[in-house]
Specification:
Length: about 170
């Protein structure tokens, strides 16, 4: 049995950050919005697993996408930020080889962009909280008495037991 604890065993990015991202994107106090936000955030994981695998596989359909991402990142570092950084600082970080994107950090950046975009579209989330309406006193007086609901529940349970033939 492997009893070691590795540094990526407790990764706050895969737990806390992604849950908060789904919460922010979906909307507060709305379960459906939370599910939609979680679905949007969860779609990024298999996509970046495909991109990570496609980096070394030239036969993959996604290999050209990874090359495009790396090319855009290289342009961003050299041409956009090249006037601020010296050539020595770029070679210290990336070495003498190609400038490539670490897809783990790229995924986090895209999740951050999804959060920012959803907040710019609607600051309360994709499905915002619906305010509750006050109770109408006229309609609330016509409801069944409180003792009727437990009787209805017991009768339904007895009918289900008889239908299933448990007793």
């Amino acid at each position: 049995m492997n009893a070691s604890v590795l540094d990526d065993f407790i990764n706050p990015v895969k737990s806390t950050f992604l849950i908060w991202a789904a919460f922010i994107v979906g909307g507060r106090a709305n379960n459906r919005g939370m599910v939609i936000g979680a679905f949007m955030i969860a779609l990024t994981e298999p996509l970046f697993n495909l991109l990570s695998a496609a980096r070394g596989d030239t036969q993959s359909n996604f290999h050209s996408y990874v090359g495009d991402i790396d090319g855009a990142f290289e342009w961003f570092i050299i041409d956009v930020f090249g006037f601020m950084y010296s050539d020595l600082s770029i070679t210290e970080v990336f070495g003498n080889g190609d400038i490539v994107v670490n897809l783990v950090y790229f995924k986090l950046m895209l999740i951050g962009l999804v959060i920012l975009t959803s907040l710019m579209v609607s600051e309360r989330g994709l499905l915002p909280e619906v305010p509750k309406r006050p109770k109408n006193p006229v309609l609330s007086s016509k409801t069944l008495p409180r003792y009727v609901w437990p009787i209805i529940v017991v009768v339904v349970i007895i009918i289900e037991i008889l239908i299933l033939g448990v007793l």
